[in-house]
Design a protein that fits this description.
Elements lengths: L15 E2 L4 E6 L2 E6 L1 H7 L4 E3 L6 E2 L4 E6 L4 E5 L4 E6 L1 H5 L2 H5 L8 E5 L10 H10 L1
Antiparallel strand pairs: 1-2, 2-3, 3-9, 4-6, 5-8, 6-7, 8-9
């Protein structure tokens, strides 16, 4: 194996993950959502981010956000229903924040869920194991 067959990425703890490569951090009954560093590294430079508006109501499976690269558009659907309480407008202006700081400055939205069981998401170790099986 050559070095270019390896992908280096980080995993943040105190977060949960989805198999769709989003991270979720629950704090004060709100959930901050972002793109995992794994996906940010795998898809390369992010050129555009489309986020919902603050105060948008999302139902399960509604389109939540989308990410554009030079090669593709990736859409993400809401895994739970809730109210979008805040969006990170900085990533819409400077999408490379996601590539540079997926777990800090590159967060995407904050939602106030109607009902949420965080157990539906993977622990960091489970996410790494799922990635190893892909």
């Amino acid at each position: 194996m050559t070095d270019d067959e390896y992908l280096e990425f980080s995993i943040a703890h105190k977060r949960k993950y989805s198999i769709k490569h989003l991270w979720y951090q629950n704090k004060d009954d709100k959930v901050t959502i972002g793109l995992s560093d794994f996906l940010a590294k795998e898809i390369g430079e992010i050129l555009r981010v489309i986020l919902p508006h603050a105060d948008d109501e999302l139902d399960v499976d509604d389109e939540m956000l989308s990410i554009w690269t030079a090669d593709e558009k990736i859409s993400f659907r809401a895994p739970f229903s809730g109210l979008v309480s805040e969006v990170n407008g900085e990533v819409e202006i400077t999408p490379e924040l996601i590539n540079d700081s997926a777990y800090e400055d590159g967060w995407l939205i904050i939602m106030d869920p109607h009902e949420l069981d965080m157990e539906m998401f993977l622990e960091p170790e489970e996410y790494v194991q799922a990635l190893a099986e892909i």
